[in-house]
Amino acid sequence: MSTHTRVRTRGSSQAGRAVALVADVLAFVIGLWILLYLLEANQGNALVDLVHDVASWLASWSYDLFTFGRAWVQVVVGYGIAAVAYLLVGHAVAGWLYRR
User: Fold this and answer.
1) Where does the chain cross the membrane (predicted)?
2) How far is residue 19's CA from residue 23's CA, in Å, rounded to a whole number?
């Protein structure tokens, strides 16, 4: 095979890794917020506030998809849907890039 094909494959592989890494980081931030919420982390702490703000922005499309009577269930499901979606879509795109 030509060198051109090998470079293209390596570039696709690197792009796939980058997409998977971004998806993992987004899901991690959301998962970290769920954990901080369940552990009743200090809401006045700057780091907790930052994680909450970022997770809220990332999950703004999924948070009120379903409503539950208990706040902790609302947080776990509302944010969890976004985390799982980022992982599934991100890794699906990464897998597609790997195969290119």
Assistant:
1) 21-39, 71-98
2) 6
Domain borders along the chain are 3-99
Owner of token pair 């696709």? 12
Q: What is the pLDDT of residues 13-33, one digit of tens each?
A: 899 999 999 999 999 999 999
Helices (H) and strands (E) in the chain, counts: 3, 0
pLDDT digits (tens, 9 = 90+) for 52-100: 999 999 999 999 899 999 999 999 999 999 999 999 999 999 999 988 7
Residue type for 90, please? G
Q: Give, in order, the Cα–Cα distances in Å from 37 to each of 11, 31, 51, 54, 94.
A: 39, 10, 10, 14, 30
Q: What is the largest CA-CA distance in the chain?
A: 61
The first and second tokens of residue 37, run together, are: 């919420």
8-state DSSP, 60: T
